[in-house]
Amino acid sequence: MEPANYSIETAELILSEHSGKILLDTLLSTRQQHTLEVRTLETEFVVTTVFHAKDYDKIIVDSYVQANPNNWQITPSDSYQYLPYNNDPAFGEGFEAATVKYLNVPPIPGDDFHFSNTYALRSGYTYNPSEGSLEIEYTKRKSTNHTYFVVPESNLYKISAEVQKNATIDLTQMKEATKATYRTSQDLQEKSTLLFGYPVANNYNNYLWLYYTNFIRFQSGYDIIYPKSDIYAYKFISTWSDASSNAYQYYSFADSVPTHLSFIDESYIKLNSKSFESLSVQFDKDLPTYYASTWTDSGNEIFWTIFSPTTKTAFNPKQFINSLNVSLLKDRSLSNLKLAKVTIEKADDLSYQAFFNSVFNLNVNKENKIGLARRFTKNMN
Asked: What DSSP line would sit under 327-376, residue for residue?
Protein backbone atom coordinates (compact mmCIF):
# COMPACT_ATOMS: atom_id res chain seq x y z
CA MET A 1 0.00 0.00 0.00
CA GLU A 2 1.45 3.31 -1.12
CA PRO A 3 -0.42 6.37 0.21
CA ALA A 4 0.84 9.69 -1.11
CA ASN A 5 0.42 11.32 2.31
CA TYR A 6 3.27 10.31 4.58
CA SER A 7 1.20 10.79 7.75
CA ILE A 8 -0.69 7.63 6.78
CA GLU A 9 1.09 4.76 8.50
CA THR A 10 -1.70 2.19 8.82
CA ALA A 11 -4.42 1.06 6.44
CA GLU A 12 -7.26 -1.40 6.68
CA LEU A 13 -7.81 -3.94 3.91
CA ILE A 14 -11.10 -5.78 3.54
CA LEU A 15 -11.71 -8.51 0.97
CA SER A 16 -15.26 -9.77 0.62
CA GLU A 17 -17.39 -11.85 -1.71
CA HIS A 18 -20.39 -10.48 -3.59
CA SER A 19 -22.62 -12.27 -1.11
CA GLY A 20 -21.22 -10.01 1.61
CA LYS A 21 -19.08 -12.72 3.23
CA ILE A 22 -15.89 -11.18 4.62
CA LEU A 23 -12.85 -13.21 3.59
CA LEU A 24 -10.21 -10.91 5.03
CA ASP A 25 -10.20 -7.85 7.31
CA THR A 26 -6.80 -6.75 8.54
CA LEU A 27 -4.76 -3.70 9.49
CA LEU A 28 -1.51 -3.27 7.53
CA SER A 29 1.45 -0.94 7.74
CA THR A 30 1.84 1.21 4.63
CA ARG A 31 4.84 1.34 2.23
CA GLN A 32 5.59 -2.31 2.84
CA GLN A 33 4.91 -5.37 0.76
CA HIS A 34 2.37 -7.76 2.25
CA THR A 35 1.57 -11.24 0.99
CA LEU A 36 -1.94 -12.27 1.95
CA GLU A 37 -3.71 -15.47 0.96
CA VAL A 38 -7.37 -16.43 1.02
CA ARG A 39 -8.99 -19.68 -0.06
CA THR A 40 -12.12 -19.28 -2.15
CA LEU A 41 -13.67 -20.41 -5.40
CA GLU A 42 -14.47 -16.81 -6.29
CA THR A 43 -12.39 -14.94 -8.90
CA GLU A 44 -13.88 -11.47 -8.36
CA PHE A 45 -14.17 -9.67 -5.05
CA VAL A 46 -15.07 -6.44 -3.34
CA VAL A 47 -11.74 -4.87 -2.40
CA THR A 48 -11.92 -2.10 0.22
CA THR A 49 -9.05 -0.01 1.55
CA VAL A 50 -9.25 2.50 4.39
CA PHE A 51 -6.60 5.19 4.87
CA HIS A 52 -6.70 7.64 7.79
CA ALA A 53 -4.68 10.83 7.24
CA LYS A 54 -4.41 11.93 10.85
CA ASP A 55 -2.71 15.26 10.20
CA TYR A 56 -5.92 16.66 8.72
CA ASP A 57 -8.37 14.02 10.03
CA LYS A 58 -9.49 12.75 6.65
CA ILE A 59 -10.51 9.14 6.09
CA ILE A 60 -10.30 7.88 2.52
CA VAL A 61 -12.24 4.69 1.83
CA ASP A 62 -12.15 3.05 -1.60
CA SER A 63 -14.18 0.02 -2.60
CA TYR A 64 -13.58 -1.77 -5.90
CA VAL A 65 -16.54 -3.96 -6.81
CA GLN A 66 -16.05 -7.10 -8.93
CA ALA A 67 -12.26 -6.83 -8.96
CA ASN A 68 -9.29 -9.16 -8.53
CA PRO A 69 -6.49 -7.42 -6.59
CA ASN A 70 -3.77 -10.00 -7.26
CA ASN A 71 -0.36 -8.21 -7.27
CA TRP A 72 -1.91 -4.78 -6.78
CA GLN A 73 0.07 -1.97 -5.13
CA ILE A 74 -2.85 0.07 -3.90
CA THR A 75 -2.90 3.83 -3.35
CA PRO A 76 -5.80 6.02 -2.26
CA SER A 77 -8.03 6.91 -5.20
CA ASP A 78 -7.28 10.62 -4.85
CA SER A 79 -3.60 10.04 -5.64
CA TYR A 80 -3.24 7.09 -8.01
CA GLN A 81 -1.12 7.53 -11.12
CA TYR A 82 -1.25 5.95 -14.55
CA LEU A 83 2.54 5.49 -14.65
CA PRO A 84 4.97 4.43 -11.91
CA TYR A 85 7.63 6.96 -10.97
CA ASN A 86 9.86 5.22 -8.46
CA ASN A 87 9.98 1.54 -9.45
CA ASP A 88 13.61 1.75 -10.59
CA PRO A 89 16.10 0.40 -7.98
CA ALA A 90 18.47 3.24 -8.90
CA PHE A 91 15.90 5.71 -7.61
CA GLY A 92 16.78 4.66 -4.07
CA GLU A 93 20.40 5.70 -4.42
CA GLY A 94 19.59 9.04 -2.89
CA PHE A 95 19.72 12.72 -3.77
CA GLU A 96 22.19 15.55 -3.45
CA ALA A 97 22.28 19.33 -3.66
CA ALA A 98 23.49 20.51 -7.04
CA THR A 99 24.04 23.63 -9.13
CA VAL A 100 24.13 24.28 -12.84
CA LYS A 101 25.57 27.47 -14.31
CA TYR A 102 24.30 28.56 -17.70
CA LEU A 103 26.49 30.79 -19.88
CA ASN A 104 25.48 32.94 -22.87
CA VAL A 105 21.94 33.11 -21.56
CA PRO A 106 19.44 34.93 -23.80
CA PRO A 107 17.61 37.90 -22.23
CA ILE A 108 15.07 36.82 -19.60
CA PRO A 109 12.52 39.63 -19.14
CA GLY A 110 11.06 39.54 -15.64
CA ASP A 111 13.20 36.49 -14.78
CA ASP A 112 10.58 34.46 -16.64
CA PHE A 113 12.17 31.08 -17.28
CA HIS A 114 11.45 27.47 -16.42
CA PHE A 115 13.92 24.85 -15.17
CA SER A 116 13.46 21.24 -14.16
CA ASN A 117 15.58 18.15 -13.77
CA THR A 118 14.90 14.45 -13.43
CA TYR A 119 13.87 14.83 -9.80
CA ALA A 120 12.37 18.26 -9.22
CA LEU A 121 12.23 21.96 -9.99
CA ARG A 122 14.71 24.64 -9.00
CA SER A 123 15.09 25.80 -5.39
CA GLY A 124 16.97 29.07 -6.02
CA TYR A 125 18.86 31.00 -8.68
CA THR A 126 21.17 33.95 -9.37
CA TYR A 127 20.73 35.77 -12.67
CA ASN A 128 23.39 38.17 -13.94
CA PRO A 129 22.08 39.72 -17.18
CA SER A 130 25.20 41.83 -17.75
CA GLU A 131 27.33 38.68 -17.82
CA GLY A 132 24.68 36.60 -19.51
CA SER A 133 24.94 33.97 -16.78
CA LEU A 134 22.36 32.15 -14.66
CA GLU A 135 23.21 29.84 -11.77
CA ILE A 136 20.47 27.52 -10.54
CA GLU A 137 20.35 25.54 -7.30
CA TYR A 138 18.35 22.30 -7.28
CA THR A 139 18.18 18.76 -5.91
CA LYS A 140 19.31 15.98 -8.22
CA ARG A 141 19.32 12.22 -8.21
CA LYS A 142 22.73 10.66 -7.79
CA SER A 143 21.97 8.42 -10.74
CA THR A 144 20.54 9.47 -14.13
CA ASN A 145 19.89 13.17 -14.42
CA HIS A 146 18.69 15.40 -17.27
CA THR A 147 17.96 19.13 -17.12
CA TYR A 148 15.50 21.27 -19.06
CA PHE A 149 15.72 25.04 -19.45
CA VAL A 150 13.32 27.23 -21.45
CA VAL A 151 12.81 30.98 -21.91
CA PRO A 152 9.23 31.55 -23.13
CA GLU A 153 9.95 35.14 -24.26
CA SER A 154 12.61 34.05 -26.75
CA ASN A 155 10.95 30.69 -27.41
CA LEU A 156 14.22 28.82 -26.86
CA TYR A 157 15.05 25.72 -24.84
CA LYS A 158 17.94 23.44 -23.93
CA ILE A 159 17.81 19.82 -22.73
CA SER A 160 21.07 18.49 -21.34
CA ALA A 161 21.77 14.82 -20.58
CA GLU A 162 23.69 13.31 -17.67
CA VAL A 163 24.34 16.62 -15.93
CA GLN A 164 26.83 16.27 -13.07
CA LYS A 165 26.53 17.65 -9.53
CA ASN A 166 28.12 21.03 -10.37
CA ALA A 167 27.86 21.67 -14.09
CA THR A 168 28.38 24.50 -16.55
CA ILE A 169 26.27 24.57 -19.73
CA ASP A 170 26.72 26.89 -22.70
CA LEU A 171 23.48 28.20 -24.21
CA THR A 172 25.01 29.53 -27.41
CA GLN A 173 23.06 26.88 -29.30
CA MET A 174 19.45 26.45 -28.19
CA LYS A 175 16.49 24.93 -29.99
CA GLU A 176 13.15 26.54 -30.81
CA ALA A 177 10.30 25.51 -28.54
CA THR A 178 6.82 24.70 -29.82
CA LYS A 179 3.88 26.86 -28.81
CA ALA A 180 0.32 25.57 -29.22
CA THR A 181 -3.28 26.46 -28.40
CA TYR A 182 -6.03 24.09 -27.28
CA ARG A 183 -9.24 23.33 -29.12
CA THR A 184 -12.21 22.13 -27.09
CA SER A 185 -15.85 21.58 -27.98
CA GLN A 186 -17.21 22.66 -24.60
CA ASP A 187 -17.29 26.02 -22.83
CA LEU A 188 -14.80 25.13 -20.11
CA GLN A 189 -12.17 26.85 -18.01
CA GLU A 190 -8.69 25.39 -17.68
CA LYS A 191 -7.74 24.69 -14.07
CA SER A 192 -4.30 23.13 -14.46
CA THR A 193 -2.16 21.41 -17.06
CA LEU A 194 0.95 19.33 -16.44
CA LEU A 195 3.29 18.03 -19.09
CA PHE A 196 6.07 15.55 -18.36
CA GLY A 197 8.66 14.47 -20.91
CA TYR A 198 10.65 11.23 -21.01
CA PRO A 199 14.00 11.86 -22.74
CA VAL A 200 15.13 8.22 -22.74
CA ALA A 201 13.16 5.46 -24.46
CA ASN A 202 11.43 3.04 -22.07
CA ASN A 203 12.87 4.72 -18.97
CA TYR A 204 9.85 5.96 -17.05
CA ASN A 205 11.81 6.94 -13.95
CA ASN A 206 13.74 9.57 -15.87
CA TYR A 207 11.29 12.36 -16.65
CA LEU A 208 11.33 16.14 -16.92
CA TRP A 209 8.63 18.51 -15.75
CA LEU A 210 8.19 20.39 -19.02
CA TYR A 211 5.17 22.51 -18.22
CA TYR A 212 2.82 23.44 -15.41
CA THR A 213 0.26 26.23 -15.55
CA ASN A 214 1.14 27.53 -12.07
CA PHE A 215 4.88 27.82 -12.75
CA ILE A 216 5.21 29.12 -16.30
CA ARG A 217 4.08 32.61 -17.24
CA PHE A 218 3.65 33.46 -20.87
CA GLN A 219 2.22 36.06 -23.19
CA SER A 220 -1.18 35.67 -24.85
CA GLY A 221 -1.47 33.85 -28.13
CA TYR A 222 -0.77 30.28 -27.01
CA ASP A 223 -1.68 27.86 -24.22
CA ILE A 224 1.38 25.66 -23.83
CA ILE A 225 5.08 25.68 -24.70
CA TYR A 226 7.22 22.55 -24.93
CA PRO A 227 10.18 20.94 -26.75
CA LYS A 228 9.09 19.04 -29.83
CA SER A 229 12.38 17.13 -30.11
CA ASP A 230 14.70 15.48 -27.57
CA ILE A 231 11.70 13.83 -25.92
CA TYR A 232 10.76 10.17 -26.46
CA ALA A 233 7.26 10.36 -24.92
CA TYR A 234 4.98 12.93 -23.28
CA LYS A 235 2.61 12.52 -20.36
CA PHE A 236 -0.10 15.19 -20.52
CA ILE A 237 -2.68 15.79 -17.77
CA SER A 238 -5.13 18.67 -18.17
CA THR A 239 -8.01 19.47 -15.79
CA TRP A 240 -10.90 21.78 -16.64
CA SER A 241 -14.20 22.84 -15.04
CA ASP A 242 -17.55 24.26 -16.05
CA ALA A 243 -19.92 26.77 -14.46
CA SER A 244 -21.45 24.04 -12.27
CA SER A 245 -18.05 23.06 -10.85
CA ASN A 246 -18.06 19.77 -12.73
CA ALA A 247 -14.54 18.53 -13.47
CA TYR A 248 -13.08 17.29 -16.75
CA GLN A 249 -9.71 15.59 -17.14
CA TYR A 250 -7.81 14.67 -20.28
CA TYR A 251 -4.83 12.33 -19.95
CA SER A 252 -2.50 11.33 -22.76
CA PHE A 253 0.70 9.31 -22.93
CA ALA A 254 2.07 9.50 -26.48
CA ASP A 255 4.90 10.66 -28.69
CA SER A 256 3.16 14.00 -29.24
CA VAL A 257 1.30 16.60 -27.18
CA PRO A 258 -2.49 16.75 -27.75
CA THR A 259 -4.08 20.11 -28.49
CA HIS A 260 -7.57 19.02 -29.60
CA LEU A 261 -9.10 18.02 -26.26
CA SER A 262 -12.31 16.04 -26.66
CA PHE A 263 -13.80 15.49 -23.20
CA ILE A 264 -16.49 13.10 -22.03
CA ASP A 265 -19.28 14.88 -20.20
CA GLU A 266 -22.58 14.58 -18.35
CA SER A 267 -24.36 13.18 -21.41
CA TYR A 268 -22.47 9.89 -20.95
CA ILE A 269 -24.26 9.01 -17.69
CA LYS A 270 -27.80 9.43 -16.35
CA LEU A 271 -28.66 9.22 -12.66
CA ASN A 272 -32.05 7.57 -12.23
CA SER A 273 -31.75 7.42 -8.45
CA LYS A 274 -29.13 9.00 -6.19
CA SER A 275 -30.17 8.39 -2.59
CA PHE A 276 -28.04 6.66 0.05
CA GLU A 277 -30.48 3.73 -0.06
CA SER A 278 -30.61 3.49 -3.84
CA LEU A 279 -28.14 4.47 -6.55
CA SER A 280 -29.15 3.73 -10.12
CA VAL A 281 -27.33 4.83 -13.26
CA GLN A 282 -27.82 4.51 -17.00
CA PHE A 283 -25.36 4.82 -19.88
CA ASP A 284 -26.75 6.18 -23.15
CA LYS A 285 -23.47 6.58 -25.06
CA ASP A 286 -20.21 4.64 -25.29
CA LEU A 287 -19.68 2.73 -22.08
CA PRO A 288 -17.02 4.17 -19.78
CA THR A 289 -14.37 1.94 -18.25
CA TYR A 290 -15.93 2.37 -14.81
CA TYR A 291 -18.13 4.69 -12.81
CA ALA A 292 -17.62 5.73 -9.21
CA SER A 293 -19.80 7.33 -6.56
CA THR A 294 -18.24 9.28 -3.68
CA TRP A 295 -20.12 9.62 -0.39
CA THR A 296 -19.17 12.08 2.37
CA ASP A 297 -20.35 12.99 5.84
CA SER A 298 -21.51 16.45 6.87
CA GLY A 299 -18.08 17.38 8.22
CA ASN A 300 -16.22 16.25 5.10
CA GLU A 301 -14.09 13.91 7.18
CA ILE A 302 -15.06 10.67 5.44
CA PHE A 303 -14.71 10.20 1.70
CA TRP A 304 -15.99 6.80 0.58
CA THR A 305 -15.67 6.06 -3.14
CA ILE A 306 -17.28 2.97 -4.64
CA PHE A 307 -15.85 1.93 -8.03
CA SER A 308 -18.18 -0.21 -10.12
CA PRO A 309 -18.15 -1.84 -13.56
CA THR A 310 -20.81 -0.62 -15.98
CA THR A 311 -22.59 -3.97 -15.71
CA LYS A 312 -23.60 -3.12 -12.13
CA THR A 313 -25.94 -0.18 -12.65
CA ALA A 314 -27.95 -0.29 -9.40
CA PHE A 315 -27.24 -1.09 -5.76
CA ASN A 316 -27.89 0.06 -2.18
CA PRO A 317 -24.84 2.07 -1.02
CA LYS A 318 -26.01 2.22 2.61
CA GLN A 319 -26.46 -1.52 2.86
CA PHE A 320 -23.14 -2.11 1.10
CA ILE A 321 -21.19 0.24 3.40
CA ASN A 322 -22.75 -1.03 6.61
CA SER A 323 -22.11 -4.67 5.65
CA LEU A 324 -18.34 -4.12 5.67
CA ASN A 325 -18.22 -3.03 9.33
CA VAL A 326 -14.95 -1.12 8.89
CA SER A 327 -12.75 -1.22 12.00
CA LEU A 328 -11.19 2.22 11.42
CA LEU A 329 -14.70 3.71 11.27
CA LYS A 330 -16.18 2.01 14.32
CA ASP A 331 -16.39 5.33 16.20
CA ARG A 332 -17.81 7.24 13.22
CA SER A 333 -21.40 7.69 12.19
CA LEU A 334 -22.15 6.55 8.66
CA SER A 335 -25.88 7.20 8.74
CA ASN A 336 -25.72 10.67 7.19
CA LEU A 337 -23.47 10.05 4.19
CA LYS A 338 -24.53 11.96 1.10
CA LEU A 339 -23.60 11.66 -2.55
CA ALA A 340 -20.89 14.26 -3.23
CA LYS A 341 -19.83 13.37 -6.76
CA VAL A 342 -20.16 10.81 -9.52
CA THR A 343 -17.20 10.03 -11.77
CA ILE A 344 -16.91 8.21 -15.07
CA GLU A 345 -13.70 7.48 -16.92
CA LYS A 346 -12.96 6.01 -20.32
CA ALA A 347 -9.41 4.70 -20.72
CA ASP A 348 -8.44 3.40 -24.16
CA ASP A 349 -10.54 0.28 -24.77
CA LEU A 350 -9.57 -1.33 -21.48
CA SER A 351 -11.94 -3.45 -19.46
CA TYR A 352 -12.71 -2.59 -15.85
CA GLN A 353 -10.21 -5.15 -14.49
CA ALA A 354 -7.53 -4.35 -17.08
CA PHE A 355 -7.71 -0.65 -16.21
CA PHE A 356 -7.10 -1.15 -12.50
CA ASN A 357 -4.41 -3.72 -13.25
CA SER A 358 -2.68 -1.03 -15.29
CA VAL A 359 -3.02 1.46 -12.43
CA PHE A 360 -2.12 -0.77 -9.47
CA ASN A 361 -0.14 -3.73 -10.85
CA LEU A 362 3.37 -2.49 -11.61
CA ASN A 363 4.24 -5.58 -13.65
CA VAL A 364 1.33 -4.89 -15.98
CA ASN A 365 1.96 -1.16 -15.84
CA LYS A 366 5.51 -1.50 -17.19
CA GLU A 367 4.29 -3.23 -20.33
CA ASN A 368 0.90 -1.69 -21.02
CA LYS A 369 0.75 2.08 -20.72
CA ILE A 370 -2.61 3.81 -20.84
CA GLY A 371 -2.49 5.99 -23.95
CA LEU A 372 -5.69 8.04 -23.54
CA ALA A 373 -7.96 8.45 -20.54
CA ARG A 374 -10.80 10.95 -20.24
CA ARG A 375 -12.59 11.54 -16.94
CA PHE A 376 -15.72 13.45 -16.00
CA THR A 377 -16.79 14.19 -12.42
CA LYS A 378 -20.25 15.53 -11.69
CA ASN A 379 -20.46 17.75 -8.62
CA MET A 380 -23.57 16.82 -6.61
CA ASN A 381 -23.35 19.64 -4.04
From this structure: GGGTTS--TT-EEEEEEEEEETT--HHHHHHHHH-HHHHHH----EEEEE
Chain centroid to CA 113: how far? 25
Report the alpha-carbon distance of residue 300 to residue 295 in Å, rounded.
9
Q: Is 85 exposed, middle or buried (0-12, 13-18, 19+ CB in 10 A)?
A: exposed
Q: What are phi and psi of 141, to 5 degrees?
A: -75, 150
Residue 89 CA to residue 95 CA, distance in Å, equals: 14
Among the listed residues 217, 59, 101, the one whose alpha carbon sits nearest the alpha carbon of residue 151? 217
Query: Distance between alpha carbon 303 and the CA centroid of its chain, in Å?
Result: 18
pLDDT (tens digit per residue) in 276-303: 999 999 999 999 999 999 999 988 899 9
Q: Over the stretch 222-250, which tens digit does the pLDDT of each residue have?
A: 899 999 999 999 999 999 999 999 999 99
Identify which of 61, 88, 78, 44 has the alpha carbon closest to the alpha carbon of residue 357.
44
**Direct distance between the N- and C-terminal alpha carbons of the chain, in angstroms, rounded to an integer:** 31
**C-alpha to C-alpha distances, 123 to 106, 135, 233, 267, 302, nearest whole angstrom:** 21, 11, 26, 44, 35
Q: How far is 281 from 215, CA to CA, in rounded Å?
A: 40
Buried-state track 263-295, b at ≥16 Cβ within 10 A, e below 16 = bbbeebbeeeebebeebebeeeeeebbbbbbbb
Residue 22 buriedness (CB in 10 A; 0-12 / 13-18 / 19+): middle
Three-class secondary structure of residue 100 per DSSP: strand
Closest by alpha carbon to 253, among 120, 79, 83? Answer: 83
Looking at the chain, list the stretches that DSSP marks H as alpha helix, in order from N- to C-terminal side.
317-324, 352-360, 362-367
Nearest alpha carbon to residue 286 among 360, 349, 193, 242 = 349
* Better pLDDT: 73 or 62: 62
User: 373 and 348 in contact (C-beta within 8 Å)?
Assistant: yes
Cα 42 to Cα 24, 72, 227, 269: the distances in Å are 13, 17, 50, 30
Q: Cα–Cα distance between 70 and 35 in angstroms, integer?
A: 10
* Strand-pair partners of 374: 250, 346
